[in-house]
Amino acid sequence: xxxxxxxxxxxxxxxxxxxxxxxxxxxxxxSAMQVDCCSIYLRRDLEQAYLLAATDGLALExxxxxxxxxxxxxxxxIGEKEELINLADAQxxxxxxxxxxxxxxxxxxxxxxPIIHQRKTFGVLVVQQKEVRLFEEGEESFLVTLASQLATxxxxxxxxxxxxxxxxxxxxxxxxxxxxxxxxxxxVWRPRVELSQVTARKGDDPALQHARFDKVLVQVEEELDSMxxxxxxxxxxxxxxxxxxxxxxxxxxxxxxxxxxxxxRGWIAGSAVKRxxxxxxxxxxxxxxxxxxxxxxxxxxxxxxLLTRLIHEDEGPLTPExxxxxxxxxxxxxxxxxxxxxxxxxIVSAKGSINSHAAILARAMGIPAxxxxxxxxxxxxxxxxxxxxxxxxxxxxxxKSVLREYRRLMAEEAQMDELFATVRQExxxxxxxxxxxxxxxxxxxxxxxxxxxxxxxxxxxFRTEIPFMMRDRFPSELEQxxxxxxxxxxxxxxxxxxxxxxxxxxxxxxxxxxxxENPFLGWRGIRLxxxxxxxxxxxxxxxxxxxxxxxNLSVMLPMVGNLDEVRAARRLLDRAWREVSAExxxxxxTIRYPSxxxxxxxxxxxxxxxxxxxxxxxxxxGTNDLxxxxxxxxxxxxxxxxxxxxxxxxVLRALQQIIDAARxxxxxxxxxxxxxGDPVGVLVLMAMGYRRFSMNNSNIMRIKYVVxxxxxxxxxxxxxxxxxxxxxxxxxxxxxxxxxxxxxxxLMRAGR
Length: 752
Ligand code: PEP
Ligand code: MG
Prior knowledge:
alpha/beta; Enzyme I, Chain A, domain 2; eight-stranded mixed β-sheet; globular; 22 strands; single chain; Beta-Lactamase; binds phosphoenolpyruvate; binds magnesium ion; 752 residues
């Protein structure tokens, strides 16, 4: 049955028309499960009923007419209980409701599964049989799998159906990724290239074309491996077989040989792929064996994957003519970094969540973003959008009065920004005279944010990974040193804390792919660099070399979970320092030994603070990962975004514990996670006793303003009051009121 299941899922998900997809599904399911009837009932809220939407087995005339009121019949019961029901003889069930127009008298056994997407019930999928019998376990899971796939198709079709109408205007809901409002036209980024879109052309260097082809071949193999892994984890493990077929084709010497022959004939790599794939697709499409016919789709898809890689490799930077709202299925930090700053007004991403690195980068750049809008986006192209980065809403083709209102809010925001800018040169000091340091998180964007920010007291976190991600090999020591030197020089006389390479998790190097089932729990940060001392040493030496004569460098280690990692890193830092110092001595230079700190972001460190204290010079709390790991909530996963909460009572307790320990062991401590740049977050942290905060460029001024409007003695009382509430909403509400009372409510929502 697995083969059938896979085939049905593929067909249904590939169909562009919902009615067609549903008819196909009921027909194929009836035959695959060898039952007498398969039907789909869709929930219609307006009519308060389930409507028969497709059937193979009941009277076709009843489709679109026969209705079962919500809460009635077995279909209603399934919808209500949101669970599968398996009955040997449904007609004897007290809830049974006979649908005369559907002619279902003959059917006795009944198996129904709810069709649910993101907690919303769209309908019920039912199979029935004349014979009295209980359905087997295998049949139950077959139906549940189909229902879950159908749910996604229906959800997308619903959104698409709405968008299809050119006059449709409405609101799509996602997650607030980066605050602010943006109004503009959608620019949909499509990573896939169709075979038919490419014009075949010849080149003059077959050796180069072979090399390009070899490179993408490896990349696509790896891409398929990691997709297969993802599918293995999910319910749809059957779909792994699809990727195995692809892998098989990719390793087929005949297929690969044909492409190479075309390259030898002078075609450039992409054109060779196009020519071979199109020929093969045409051949397979005419075959009478349905299995072989199916291979045409596999080859087309595979060819497009190869082409996409080849074409994007050739592409120059992305330069839209007018400033746009970037809309894409998945937005990576590198994609954002590729678009020139002035051309990017807002960001909308189907995948990702509030603490994906793409969202962090958007916040750093001050670009409003909405994440996790689970829709297919082609139909948004060129439509007018409003991105509300406070509420996480995306307004499509808003009506005039709504546009006017948002423009007014934007004007108010601009006024607020002007107000915040007035404190640029002022000290970051509370009304009761307590000084706090406001430092910059830099490095995520391509230009590394090194533009001198005189409002900041230094750099609290320089993320070094982006320069590694934006190229096709590890940067050399000299390249790195030049980059680090620019940053250290820009902040001469102010501290700069550089974090060693933190790749893994959601930050992948294109030339060093890591395929893991659980990347955030895997080979990431210090774990990877300690396993590769050659990479780590080069980076440390580059940092040290860059600091010569400036003496403002400190080094920080990411993802530390145990003390041996710190000891090993310290030994490597000693060695790097000795070697660079020896070289520098040759020209009478000296390199100051930098202070060494760790990020506190893996919860195991919370229980080792006394032992950690003597090993390092400072701590910096990475609340993004600390929250993710303490709560076991993926910071990138939109589905669990509502339970990712940096102000969860457990996180608050951990933060209090860290500041208490820092005081006890006289360890300088700062916060460099996103919480530090959050107006409520910073108040909470100040109330706990934190005095050093590192945040993105666009937050520095507003946080300085907030600091200058607050008093630490008041904040301590506010914290006590807030802690008396069990729920995060109420906890934040108490601090929210504090902001409102000072005229700063606009920091939490659109407008003033
Ligand atoms: C953090 O985890 O809080 C942090 C600052 O590091 P990153 O977001 O780069 O993982
Ligand atoms: Mg982190």
